[in-house]
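Query structure, 596 C-alpha cells:
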C-alpha cells in the first residue's frame, strides 16, 4: 500500500538551520488527521531521505550529526506517526513509496519509538541555492559546460530538455518519458526530483537534431546521458519534445515583491520590500530604463510565468500611497536572475529624478510567450550579390535602407552592391508573436503599399572578425504575417487590407530575398573574411520565452565579386567551445567551404 498523508515538511531543529534559507536539515514530519507527527527513525533509510530531499528541491541527501539530535530528542516528548516509510530512492514523491511497518501503539493511543528518535533528513542544495552563509565561496566555482539544459520555461527549474552531443544541442523525444527519467534531469541540474514530466512539446518546440528517444532510467544515474536510450529517433519530430518541471527549494523570493493595483493578479505596479533605516517597508521601483528583461525577472520571482509587457508609467494602477516612494533604482538584469535583488541596481543610493508614484515600474505577466527563431539554413542557401542601379533604389533610399554613402551615388549611372538573402522567421513558442504597437501607431509605407507595425524588428549586420560593424542593413520596419504554417495550423495574420499583424505559433513569416530592403549594402566593403549576423527583436520590444536563439551568425568570405556563406547557425545551438572556435576561425584557404 502506498503512503497517503495530508502534507510533509522538514522542520529545522538546530539553531543554525533555523536561520537559513532554504531549510536543508531537520525533522521529517507528516500531517496526519490534522496534526504534525514525527517519524520514528528505526526503519528510516537514506533512500527515504533522498526522496524527501528531492521533494523539497534538493538533488541529494547527506549524513548528519546524530548525537546532537539524540540529545535534543531526549528533552522533548514526541508525537509519532504510527507507520514507517519504505522508499526505494528513485520515487519523485513519497506518495509513490510503500507504507512500512506499523509501530507499537501504547494504551494512550500514542505510537511509540522504543529507544529511537525522530527521523532527520539532511539535504545537499544545488549550487544556485546554497544557503546564504556560504555565498562567500559560491562565486569561486567555475561552471563546467553542462551536458543537459532546460529551455523555454517560464519559471526556475522548468523547460524543454536539451542534450549536448558532438558539440551540438538537440532535444529529447517524449516516447516513454516519465517522472523517473525527468527526475534524473532535475537532480543533474541541481534541483530536486521532478514535479511533472511534460510531453508533446508543451513548453515549446526545439530546433536542430533530436538526440535521444525511448529513455529508460533507473533514477540513480548521475546524468540523463547515462540512462539507456534509443539513438534512432525515426518517427519523432519536434512536436514530441520532452520537458520537465522540477521541485525547487523554497527561497521565499516571492515574499519580497508584490504587484499592486492591476485588473488581475498577473499585472500591476511593482512594489519591493526594502530595508530603510533599520525597518522593512514597501516602495516602488524607478522606471527609468525599465524593460521587458527586468519585467521577466519580476514575473519569474512571483511564479507568474513570462512578462508580456514592461510599463514605465503606472498612474492608472493605484498602488498603496504609503509605498509611493522609490526604494530601488538603476535596475539592470541579464534576464536569468531568480530575484530582482540579484540584478545590478543602485543599492541604498537611490537616484530617480522622475520619482515614484505614477512613474513606478509596472509589469504584466503571462503563462505563455512566443519564441522566434530564424531558419539559418535558408540564409546560407539564398545569399547572393546584386549590383542594383541607383534609379531602381529611390524608394529604398527614402526608407533609409542603403549605406550613408548612397547619397553621393549618381541616380542615372550609379549602382549599389547589395548582399541579398531570404529570412524565414518561425514562432516556436506557446503563444502568438504580436507587435508591441496597436494599430493606431502603425505606419503606412508607400513603397511597400502596406502598414508596418514594428519600427525595429530585425538588425542585419556585417562584422569584421574582431566584431566591428563594417556594414548594416537598415530594414526600417516590418509588417508581420503568417506566410506559411504547419499542416494543422490556420493562418491568422496578413499585411494586406490593414489586416491584423503577428506570427501564429507553428507558423513562419518569410521575407524573400527579392523584396526591398531585404539586404545589406556592401558597396563600400573591401574583400575579406567577415561575420554575417541577423538579430530578431533586438530591443526586446516584445517578450519571448528565449532570447538566446534570436541571433543567427554565419561566416562569410567576399572576394570582391562573389560571396560565400557557411556555418550559419542560431545562437545557443552549439557548445560554448564550438561557438568560441567559430568566432576566432582562421577562414577559408580556398573558395571551397572548409569543414569545421
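Result returned for the query:
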Amino acid at each position: 500500500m502506498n503512503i497517503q498523508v495530508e502534507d510533509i515538511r522538514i522542520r529545522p531543529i538546530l539553531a543554525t538551520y533555523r536561520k537559513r534559507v532554504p531549510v536543508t536539515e531537520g525533522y521529517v514530519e507528516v500531517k496526519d488527521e490534522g496534526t504534525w507527527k514525527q517519524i520514528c527513525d528505526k526503519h528510516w533509510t537514506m533512500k527515504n531521505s533522498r526522496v524527501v530531499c528531492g521533494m523539497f528541491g534538493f538533488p541529494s541527501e547527506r549524513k548528519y550529526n546524530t548525537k546532537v539530535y539524540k540529545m535534543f530528542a531526549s528533552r522533548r516528548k514526541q508525537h509519532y506517526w504510527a507507520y514507517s516509510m519504505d522508499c526505494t530512492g528513485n520515487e519523485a514523491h513519497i506518495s509513490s513509496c510503500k507504507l512500512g511497518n506499523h509501530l507499537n501503539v501504547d494504551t494512550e493511543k500514542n505510537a511509540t519509538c522504543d529507544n529511537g528518535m525522530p527521523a532527520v533528513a539532511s539535504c545537499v542544495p544545488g549550487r544556485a541555492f546554497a544557503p546564504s552563509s556560504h555565498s562567500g565561496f559560491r562565486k569561486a566555482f567555475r561552471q563546467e559546460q553542462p551536458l543537459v539544459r532546460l529551455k523555454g520555461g517560464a519559471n526556475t527549474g522548468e523547460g524543454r530538455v536539451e542534450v549536448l552531443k558532438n558539440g551540438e544541442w538537440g532535444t529529447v523525444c517524449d516516447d516513454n518519458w516519465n517522472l523517473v527519467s525527468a527526475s534524473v534531469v532535475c537532480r543533474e541540474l541541481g534541483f530536486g526530483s521532478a514535479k511533472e514530466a511534460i510531453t508533446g512539446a508543451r513548453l515549446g518546440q526545439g530546433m536542430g537534431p533530436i538526440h535521444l528517444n525511448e529513455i529508460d532510467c533507473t533514477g540513480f544515474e548521475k546524468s540523463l546521458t547515462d540512462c539507456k536510450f534509443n539513438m534512432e529517433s525515426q518517427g519523432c519530430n519536434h512536436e514530441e519534445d520532452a520537458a520537465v518541471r522540477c521541485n525547487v527549494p523554497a527561497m521565499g523570493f516571492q515574499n519580497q515583491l508584490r504587484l499592486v493595483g492591476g485588473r488581475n493578479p498577473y499585472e500591476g505596479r511593482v512594489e519591493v520590500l526594502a530595508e530603510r533605516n533599520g525597518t522593512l517597508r514597501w516602495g516602488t521601483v524607478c522606471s527609468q530604463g525599465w524593460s521587458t528583461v527586468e519585467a521577466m525577472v519580476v514575473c519569474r520571482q512571483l511564479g507568474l510565468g513570462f512578462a508580456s509587457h514592461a510599463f514605465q508609467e503606472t498612474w492608472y494602477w493605484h498602488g498603496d500611497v504609503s509605498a509611493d516612494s522609490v526604494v530601488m533604482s538603476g535596475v539592470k538584469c541579464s534576464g536569468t536572475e531568480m530575484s530582482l535583488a540579484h540584478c545590478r541596481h543602485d543599492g541604498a543610493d537611490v537616484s530617480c529624478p522622475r520619482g515614484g508614484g505614477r512613474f513606478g515600474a509596472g509589469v504584466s505577466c503571462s503563462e505563455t510567450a512566443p519564441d522566434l527563431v530564424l531558419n539559418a539554413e535558408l540564409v546560407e542557401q539564398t545569399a547572393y550579390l546584386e549590383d542594383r542601379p541607383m534609379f531602381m533604389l529611390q524608394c529604398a533610399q527614402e526608407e533609409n535602407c542603403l549605406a550613408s554613402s548612397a547619397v553621393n551615388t549618381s541616380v542615372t549611372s550609379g549602382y549599389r552592391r547589395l548582399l541579398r538573402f531570404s529570412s524565414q522567421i518561425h514562432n516556436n513558442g506557446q503563444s502568438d508573436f504580436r507587435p508591441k504597437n496597436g494599430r493606431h501607431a502603425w505606419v503606412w509605407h508607400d513603397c511597400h503599399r502596406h502598414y508596418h507595425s514594428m519600427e525595429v524588428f530585425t538588425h542585419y549586420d556585417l562584422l569584421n572578425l574582431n566584431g566591428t560593424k563594417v556594414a548594416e542593413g537598415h530594414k526600417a520596419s516590418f509588417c508581420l504575417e503568417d506566410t506559411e504554417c504547419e499542416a494543422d495550423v490556420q493562418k491568422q495574420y496578413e499585411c494586406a487590407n490593414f489586416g491584423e499583424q503577428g506570427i501564429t505559433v507553428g507558423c513562419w513569416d518569410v521575407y524573400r530575398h527579392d523584396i526591398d530592403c531585404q539586404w545589406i549594402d556592401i558597396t563600400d566593403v573591401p574583400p575579406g573574411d567577415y561575420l554575417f549576423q541577423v538579430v530578431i527583436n533586438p530591443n526586446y520590444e516584445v517578450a519571448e520565452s528565449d532570447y538566446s536563439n534570436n541571433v543567427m551568425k554565419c561566416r562569410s568570405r567576399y572576394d570582391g565579386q562573389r560571396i560565400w556563406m557557411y556555418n550559419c547557425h542560431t545562437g545557443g545551438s552549439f557548445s560554448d567551445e564550438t561557438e568560441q572556435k567559430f568566432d576566432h576561425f582562421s577562414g577559408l584557404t580556398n573558395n571551397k567551404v572548409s569543414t569545421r
